[in-house]
Specification:
Length: 606
């Protein structure tokens, strides 16, 4: 059965080869599938550093840093700052993210957690309306001060540069300052995302003033300028993170959260938040260990809790390693991929949360023996979903943890952005950051030119749950910035936006690349399917045209398709990736079409 659902309704559905002598990964010694022309330049092949993002201006800024002698961390920060200007509905300094870094000096892969955190006034019942004794409706939390988490992006950038960078934050913000000051051309994606948010953007005086033209979305082809954000970036360039987390800007963030700047005419019920200036002042960006699994001889590193990305991708890969996907019929391989996604997502929903607040059984979830127990549930027919979580605690060194699986209903917004960057020295960065929903909370900080996140809607609204709200806690995320090595050398770096579908997007791209033998551009462009432990599997329209779709339906799988602005959407995720080949060869790959297409560059193109 095939049905169509809108992107608005999908928010609820979404709850729930060695290098240096032989080719890296399953590709030949010369990369295949390279893009040869066109404005988007989604693929670039050559030597030296490389960058892939969803946006040409951001990719170009990162490339310039590489060509001027900066390293991959420098370039990632410069590119991310530009994305905060050109992709303001997906990311920016009002949000947070996760950065995975592979240092060139051979030291271990590390991760920087600058996920948004809950204010100290939060408690487990904060999303329960006392008037009804029921959870506050999701549509109210999305557009509210109550959904805004303490932003982490600025401190995350500063921490990355302090540990691994070679340039100052102030210098790396200059390209973004110029783009904000001079403006950029409005494309169909920017205009469409504005159109989808018209009611919310019209509800706030500051947002209406910045993003709307007499109450309407800007026209495609017009020039969009953000001088307020240029001034904000200049403040941060001069004062560092202190200029963001203390002083006038911190005060204005708190005022926006506590007293949202609503217009008198709005019908939206906008709830105030409880953030204070001390919440901003006390924010930190901790260094965390990555998740690590071995898959068919590759070492796959990603983000650990509070992200569920690394653990869920890793568990699914461990399950799939017991199947010979490369020689199996495509229908059988895709069936196994869907079922592994269901099973790993069931465990993700039950056990993942902020590790400083809950006992996450990460060792058990990533155990090969535990994967074998989950794999044994997969048969020739589709499992009825939602499937129950397993019990990973016996597979821990300390098996005493309680089995407390809980139903997960938190919905993640589909917006976010990702960039992958490498340099000629061997540093590699995989970086995903976000403001959650497309348009975040809908609230622009007056006079400072950026949207605040609504990340706290990622908490489970009803306790008890490992992901229930608590003071200072970071909500569970699906962001999955990933770096794959073989014999200690990079093979591929990748990640994606897409809310809860980030996990399956990264997983399917890895399966395409490692198991199905696709080139990296083919692996990124291939039609996607995504099951989040639901009776229905999300499918892009292009996938439904394939023979595999009909064959999978015969096995009991049901498909649903997203619709955006009245048209079927092929926008499950938007990968940005870099592949590493022999003798220093690199291939940067962005989406050729999804979300308008991305842009990839290398320092020294073929």
């Amino acid at each position: 059965m095939r049905v169509i659902i809108s992107l608005v309704a999908s928010a609820v559905l979404l709850a729930g080869a060695a290098v240096g002598g032989a080719a890296a990964g399953p590709v030949s010694s010369a990369f295949s599938g390279a893009h040869s022309g066109g404005a988007a330049h989604p693929t670039a092949t050559g030597e030296g550093g490389a960058v892939a993002t969803v946006d040409r201006t951001a990719s170009r800024a990162a490339l310039r840093v590489l060509r001027s002698g900066g390293n991959a961390v420098d370039a990632a920060v410069a590119g991310a700052a530009v994305l905060g200007v050109t992709e303001p509905f997906s990311c920016g300094i009002g949000g947070g993210g996760f950065m995975v870094i592979r240092p060139a000096d051979g030291s271990p892969i590390t991760t920087i957690d600058h996920r948004e955190s809950a204010p100290q006034a939060f408690h487990p019942e904060i999303f329960i309306d006392p008037a009804t004794n029921a959870p506050i409706p999701f549509e109210e939390l999305v557009t509210s001060g109550l959904g805004v988490g303490v932003p982490g992006t600025v401190l995350g950038w500063e921490e990355a540069l302090r540990r691994y960078g070679t340039r100052s934050l102030g210098g790396l913000l200059r390209p973004a300052i110029e783009v904000a000051r001079r403006g950029f051309r409005v494309d169909a994606v920017f205009a469409g995302q504005t159109e989808e948010n018209l009611e919310r953007f019209r509800a706030f005086t500051s947002t209406r003033r910045l993003f709307l033209d007499d109450g309407a979305a800007p026209e495609v082809g017009s020039n969009f300028r953000n001088p307020a954000l240029a001034r904000t970036y200049r403040m941060i360039a001069r004062g560092g993170s202190n200029a963001f987390y203390q002083g006038p800007l911190a005060h204005e963030i708190v005022e926006t959260v506590a007293s949202p700047p609503v217009t008198p005419s709005t019908d939206l019920h906008v709830r105030p938040g409880v953030m204070t200036e001390s919440d901003l002042r006390d924010y930190d960006a901790p260094i965390r260990y990555p998740t690590a699994v071995s898959y068919r001889g590759y070492d796959v590193y990603s983000m650990g809790p509070p992200s569920s990305g690394g653990s869920t991708v890793g568990e699914a890969l461990n399950i799939l390693e017991g199947f010979d996907l490369s020689s199996a019929p495509r229908t059988a391989a895709l069936h196994d991929y869907i079922e592994a996604s269901k099973l790993s997502y069931a465990d993700r929903n039950a056990y993942l949360g902020d590790p400083e607040y809950t006992d996450v059984p990460l060792e058990g979830l990533l155990s090969d023996d535990y994967a074998a127990t989950r794999r044994s549930l997969i048969g020739p027919e589709a499992l009825g979903a939602p499937v129950d979580p397993g019990d990973p605690f016996p597979f821990q060194d300390d098996p005493s943890g309680p089995l407390r699986p809980e139903v997960s209903v938190a919905a993640e917004g589909p917006s976010t952005t990702h960039l992958s960057v490498s340099d000629s020295h061997g540093n590699v960065v995989s970086y995903t950051f976000t403001i959650e929903q497309t348009g975040g909370s809908g609230m622009v900080v007056p006079r400072y030119g950026f949207l605040l996140n609504n990340e706290l809607t990622d908490f489970e609204p009803e306790p008890p749950h490992p992901n229930a709200p608590e003071a200072g806690k970071r909500p569970r995320s699906s962001m999955s910035p990933t770096i794959v090595l073989k014999d200690g050398r990079p093979v591929v770096a990748l990640g994606s936006p897409g809310g809860a579908t980030i996990i399956t997007t990264v997983l399917q791209t890895l399966v395409n690349y490692i198991d199905f033998g696709m080139s990296l551009p083919e692996a990124v462009a291939a039609p996607r399917i995504s099951n989040l432990n639901s009776p229905e599997t999300l499918a892009e329209p292009e996938f439904l045209k394939t023979p595999a779709a009909d064959a999978l339906e015969q096995r009991g799988h049901e498909f649903v398709t997203l619709v955006s602005l009245g048209e079927p959407s092929n926008d499950i995720g938007a990968v940005a990736a870099i592949g590493f080949g022999p003798a220093g060869q690199v291939q940067a790959v962005a989406e050729p079409e999804r979300r308008g297409g991305g842009t990839a560059f290398v320092e020294h193109p073929d």
